[in-house]
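Predict structure. Chain length: 527.
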Amino acid sequence: MSFLCTWFGIFCPKTPDPPAPPSDRLISIDVSGPTEFVATLVPDMFPPIVGERQVPEAPWHITFPVPGSVNGGANIQIVAEGWVDSITRLSVQSKTVDELGGIPTTDTQCDAVQLIPATPAVHPRRGVPQLTGRVFSDADGPYLALGTSLFWAPWAWTNDREKLNANLAYVKGRVDYIRVLLAVGPGGLWDQRLSTMQSIIANDTLRHLANHAYDNYGIRLMPTIFGTVQGTQLERDAFVDYVAQTSQELGEKIHHIEVANEGDNNGFQREKLIEYVARIKRVYTGAVALTAPVSQSPTDYYKDSGANLMSLHLERDVNGTGGVWRPVRQPREGQATGWSWSSNEPIGIGSSVAQDDDPLRLTMSAALTWLCAGATYVMHTGAGIYGIEYQASTAYRRANLWEQPTMSATLDGLASLRRLLPADLPNWHWLNGNPNFADYPFQTDPLVKEDSVLRSFLSTDGTNFVCMPIRVAQDTPYIARRPMQFTHYDPLTGEMLGQAQLQPGESYVLTGAPNGQKAAIFIGRYL
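Prediction complete.
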């Protein structure tokens, strides 16, 4: 035949070789968010392929070994409890994929996936928050107020809505409000999170952000008006007026207002801040705090200020008596002021000066705030400051709240705690476990030995009491001075660990733990 084709000048194409059989390949994807999840590549016409985790830390590098015989369309599904499922359709990404899309025919790295926390149904609290004594109350009644730092939220409203929504979704139903800095920067990392008075007013950011957080996530806003000094005096005056008027119009969506963050350190004179409090209260009927004093005693700083809530940034020093438990006992300083006060920037995950990521200590830090007459506690974290991933002086800071390894465990502990404790606890009568308090209901001799138990603060309404031993290093007897009964709870889980009904002289022994890594909640009543 080839002779005839050649003789007559006819071109006869050679029969093509059969195509090479498809080869095995690896399809890869990086996953951020949860630590536990299932990743599956689901072909349209073949059995699913479960992904294999290749690295020991986030972002998790997942590979799918795809046999050469598997082809056609496919999805990559990432499923984790408490997170929104991710479904990625493999589509045209390179010449290795046919024009209709499908599984690549060679090793391929797919676009990374960031999972978003699921948003459980939450009914927001109703009514404008007001202080009733030292307790926040609204139309739903009194509550132990809890916030978290999300300083960069005003910047994110304009510049990164997806990041904002993911962080709001994570704390939905877990905190009452977020603390935000309205006017902050420039300087340092604030250059990347700059939020100006002019942009806030021009875009009406306070109104839109508050509406968004409350309507979609049930979370109120707590605006700190000035993170740094910006603009002229007239511009700052106008900005205060804008915040006051807008906050009043927003009503139940604003938790309370703080004029400035550490005003002493950020260029504000006390007299001017007091003037701003008066200016705000002319139109805003909620709680107003001046600032957290830095260079002067809080009681002197707040005297005759017109504010009705005191902001405090408690010491984070972990040296000296108590060690890492020392910051946990610091709410005593707030109680000593006699004010209704807020623990606005306590030690936390990735905080400056010193940091603490232990869920038990952070949970007890909040518990003691409420026990020591604190109206509200802010869970302060590194991710809540800038929302930027970087190495800080005390810790490696994450970019998002949920990326902080112990954040979820701490929030769970706080939720258990708020279910246990009386909602009006900050209004109760506070007592310390030492001889100076004659009406303390337990004998104090065993409780003043700091090598056994660091502190055993207690509050009572006259009939009921709550006691909170912290850093319990040795077995410690709680010897009754009067007839009583109480239940012993685990602070993190709310689990009942013991019960006691005591007559005077009878005792309940609280067992110690190595290194004092133990705390307890006693809730009881006098008989």
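Summary: Residues 1-9, 92-100 have pLDDT under 50 and may be disordered.
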